[in-house]
Model the fold of this input.
Amino acid sequence: MRRSSGKLTRAAVAIAALSGIVMMGSASPASAVGGTPIDSAGPLTQILVGDDTQCQVLYAGDTEPSFYGDADSGACGTFVALGGTLYGPDEVPAGGDATPRTPFTPVSQSAVSGAGTTASPFSVTTVADLGATGFRLTETDTYVVGQEAYLTTVSLANTTGADQSAVIYRAGDCYLQDSDDGFGQVDGNAVSCRAPNSDRIEQWFPVTPGSTYMEGEYDDVWATIGSQQPFANTCLCDQTPGMEHDNGAGLSWVRTIGAGQAVAVSHYTTFSPFGIQAPTVTKTADIGQVEINAANGYTISVANPGQFDITLDNVTDTLPAGFTYVPGTTTGATTAEPSVSGQIVTWNGPLSVPAAGSISIRFSVTVSSVAGTYTNSATATGPGIVVIGAENVAPVVVTEPVPVTTPPTPAAPAAAVAARPVFTG
Done:
């Protein structure tokens, strides 16, 4: 049975803010995000990140912003549980359950850089301290015009002399397609709020492995963050009409940050009108261990979990240092020779990946002449789509040749000495 959220409507929040009224169980008038917006032709027409990581997104064609709040104050952001204290944005509309919470201490925020292209995406970098703990958060948000997702990378640096564990959250209170109610959906490790009357999703798609997810009533999501516990891979995924709920969702990562070290986690926030899930690149090696200068091979696969075919402009592989592509060995989705520039091997499209299907490219290499463990990275691009690349995967251990030793030839057995006759007489 659907429960009442207890939240004010956006109109009521605006009236309360103008009149100075704070109502029991409702969002207090939230402060503006105070950040520099990424403005574009869309479909994400504005991405606003505050100097304390609070965020809001405007989607082309929608009347209301994508997260609860208003255009200047979204119930969305980064949170970190560290040493028994939860840090996060100063204001979270209707986010009173994400408490007790200590606001981040803003340090700096860059102006928008980049041209909004794949080669030069729009980018904003936000730096904030976790009080006087000696931990500093650096968040970078990037967007390529024409895509329905933007990338967030959160780096947490430990300037102290001791290792410490933290839980890093990225979460929001969904207001998808001008509605505060929806369903939940899980696709692999990605979690979404789903619109009740269309295929649209508002999705957190992890790029960095090891995440856990949650979708549920918005205040339950905030309460889990307030408990400083990681999400437990839960979802109110019943999409039966009448089971809509005032939902939120997000991802969490548990990380140990070494003294003087930093860790980073990344995810895409996808706002799709068709429920398209981002295609994902994987990479495997034929042989996990070979001798120096030996032959080996790789297979690159691109999986499309969405319900529509996609077209790739190219597939690109970054070979490890000392590895070389063997000409004429490409098979699979294409047999055309790739362009090779240093360690960068690129197969040009168009390459079609069917809905709920995948394509693969296999090729041969000669491995390095230097022993060691080598990993590989691969990615792909396509018009208007976000592709999740494979970074530092497919490890190959290159070893020195094993010396061949020839066993000594055994000595021939001594010839038998004939017995001398014995004379008597």
Notes: The radius of gyration is 29 Å. The helical segments are 10-19, 218-226.
